[in-house]
Design a protein that fits this description.
two-stranded antiparallel ribbon, 0% helix, mainly beta, single chain
């Protein structure tokens, strides 16, 4: 069986993720990624969680899920992208 191992630097930033055999030993600076890790994200030892990079300055970390959340909920209908300058979701219109 294989496992995902995240290599983290001194500041807790994930710098690499690799697949290894389950019986391989971990080296210093490596964490068993039993939760999804993101290169460029951070490992929070107190939460035992990997936190992805913050996508926008206005988004806040949801303490329960360890995911970033927009200050305004995603609209129920349509396809939208976040516009940081406007501070809102903008609907994507199909050009075809």
């Amino acid at each position: 069986m294989s496992v995902h191992v995240a290599t983290i630097n001194e500041s807790g930033t994930v710098v690499a993720i690799e697949v290894r055999r389950q019986d391989d030993e971990l080296s210093a600076g490596e964490v068993l990624a039993n939760k999804f890790a993101f290169v460029g994200g951070t490992y929070d030892e107190n939460r035992d969680a990997f936190i992805p990079p913050q996508p926008y300055a206005s988004w806040v970390l949801d303490e329960d899920t360890c995911l970033w959340v927009a200050p305004i909920a995603y609209p129920a209908e349509g396809v939208h992208v976040w516009d940081e300058e406007a501070g809102n979701w903008v609907e994507v219109v199909d050009p075809y």
